[in-house]
Fold each of these.
Amino acid sequence: MKIIDNVYLVPGVTANCYLLAGPDGLTIIDTGLPYSQKTILRYMAGKGWSARDIKRILITHADLDHYGCLAALQKESGARTYASRVEAEAIAKGKSSRPIDRRRNNTLQRLLIAFFSRIMKATPFPVDEILTEGQVLPALGGLQVVETPGHSPDHISFFAPSAQILFCGDSMRSDDQGLHTSRSRNDWDPDCAAASIRKQAGLGAQIVCPGHGPVVREAGGKFPIW
């Protein structure tokens, strides 16, 4: 699905996977669950791109549904991979960056977590480059790294000022009513999460692309801050 020129949401991937096209090739933000590479590459092929057009893979945080097929997609593409330090350390172990406390979930959620943990595992993968606040990547005229901890210890988001578009990972979620706090039972630090939302609200983004839920347009004033 086209969001704006050169920015696409790959359908059928959990969590949301975004494709950014540029003169030097493609940048991907988050990769979805294990085996999602097949869906991503099929979508790319429909637009005339091959795996080798992928130059960068950016990961917002080390949850299975955001980096599950990173290793497989990198093997297909040879792309350079990026994440923040704590999240990269977890990815290198094939784990999450914080413990998932199943006691905080209801019975059905605990059963689902147990089921998926048995059948789906991320392949441990050494990330190429560690990202920090303020770095600028060569996509969309300059894609800024924004540190947005809270949902996970070292969660990062990406903001392109020239396009006024923000890729916020799981620092926020969305539905047909707009943007909301993550409100995940597995949030690492709710206070940090709230501060990260306030920080992102000040960036001036008019389009917000979350890790889960629809893209939010005319986003100014729609951030869930308090």
Amino acid sequence: MHDRTQIERCPNSEIGTHILEDKVFEMIRDIMLDPGKLRGCVDTGSELDDRSIARGLACVAGKFSALEDERRRIIGRYAAGQMTGEEYIAANRALDERQERLTGKKAQLVAAMRFPQHEDFVDASIRQFCATGNARLQACADFDEKRQFLMDHVERVIFNRYKITIMGSVPVRLPSGETTLKFRIEGEINKWEVRSNASRMGEQKKQLNALVPAVRTDALSATNSI
């Protein structure tokens, strides 16, 4: 699924997979499965921007007007004998094709327009997504179930220099049809905490290694005494 030429080996030896996994699921629980917080991470998209749609409709209306002017000009030329019958028919067919394309474009813009209850539908879809996700995550009992959860609810997890980005989409049902809204959740691993834990674990390992010879010596001494 990815271009392997773009994959680079992570040079950070301090980030264990368990640290990354813990942080990802922390972000999922705290943000992705919280309707209020997830709503702030959702990209509504330019297709849902009423101002952009209004500008698009105004542009289409201007093109419709230009087509009508062109049609009247063609009729005038034909009436004045400046066009043959074949040229007149061909010119009108070309205008009809352009008008048909504009009609389709107008229909798309109208279908994408928001309506008074649009935000209510979006909020309801986000709440449903979070409720379903919460139930699924709580039911995960092993690695395979967690992996399947991520496959079903997350599209991509990006890790770059302690920074983590979770990307996905929320299915939304609108009166005009079904669509999806993309979300992007950003977080960061506390590198000082990671280094502190690594240092602490290293110190514990040293202490354990120092104890091993002493334990072996005591055991040998006990054996010799026996």
Amino acid sequence: MKAMILAAGRGERMRPLTDRAPKALLEAGGKPLIVHLIERLARAGLSDLVVNVSHFAEQIEQRLGDGTALGVRIAYSREEAALETGGGIAYAMPLLGDSPFLVINSDVYSDFDFRRLEPAAAALARGALDAHLVLVDNPAHHLDGDFALRKGCLSSDGAPRLTFSGIGVYSPGMFATVKRGTRCPLIALLAPSMARARVGGEHHRGTWVDVGTPERLDELDRRLRAAKDRC
């Protein structure tokens, strides 16, 4: 299974840090956020990666290169301007191929084991589902959550609601109607499939941080450095 890392965004909430560097290269625990993620993907056996870039694209490409130093292979999908999640994935489809693929936000730090998604990918390959999302408990900055999880399927209605982690597996067919190079939010593609009970989900109860602000980046940095000091 290929994996796509979303790293094209401007990172407005992370300013002024992202006025000089892309959010994916901001460091926590002495290491860029995207490198933490790539190392975890590699440990799970996911070595064929696509990274979409736009804001400070050159910095990301120069830092990661072709991925060899990190034990992976990286292909870049360069967007002239960020196309939102759905549009960015659709733009990268020539690199992603015809099989289900994993997508994860570059500003997520988590201990989620990506190998857990293999059964979901198999279900997508059989045509049983269009997507499978990983949900987490609602963080303090997003108490209303995003979706309800009922009998393994996602719904936009109902309670209790959980937060989308930014980790998901998708069928290529979900993006077939998006004109390449156009902006498209992911929810516009998920909603019709959710209405037909074709979006699966699971609840991850382990470590998960949406590193979306300087304050959360500082907090994660302190946690990782403290953990390193204890080793």
